[in-house]
Specification:
Layout: H1 11-16, E1 20-24, E2 53-57, E3 62-67, E4 70-76, E5 98-105, E6 115-117, H2 122-130, E7 140-141
């Protein structure tokens, strides 16, 4: 098992800053940049904008990297086999919905910058426990 590295101490922190992830069940992506193709050229670390939020629109399978209210990059994303609805238990194939933080990254991942989101939150654990379920975890953004 590889060891997690706090994102605040990593190279990724310079590019990604403090991230919040908002996973949204909505039917459509918001903003004009949703229809723009992802940029082909990769800017150097010093040229990359600071990103302070990631918005994922599950219905459209689109992820926006945000700087304030501005979309700085858009990507198509793959989700679990049953992404509709909020994740409730281990193995349900769903993607969590709501506000989460990027809390660590796996520097040894075979996926570039494998970033962990802070699921399950306290309320996720409580809901799963009340239903007699394991909430699951290890929800990552990777590419």
């Amino acid at each position: 098992m590889s060891q997690a590295t706090p994102i605040r101490n990593s190279i990724a922190a310079r590019a990604l800053a403090v991230l919040a992830v908002l996973l949204i069940a909505g039917l459509g992506a918001r903003g004009a940049a949703a229809n723009e193709p992802a940029q082909a050229a990769q800017p150097s670390m010093s040229e990359r904008p600071t990103v302070d939020m990631i918005l994922v629109y599950k219905g459209e399978r689109v992820m926006h990297l945000m700087q304030g209210n501005k979309v700085v990059r858009t990507f198509q994303v793959a989700l679990g086999p049953q992404p509709q609805g909020h994740k409730q238990r281990e193995g349900d194939g769903r993607t969590p919905e709501g506000g989460y933080l990027i809390d660590w990254r796996n520097p040894n991942s075979s996926f570039h910058l494998s970033l962990h989101i802070s699921y399950p939150r306290h309320q996720d654990r409580r809901s799963a426990m009340e239903a007699g379920l394991d909430p699951g975890g290890a929800i990552m953004i990777h590419g």
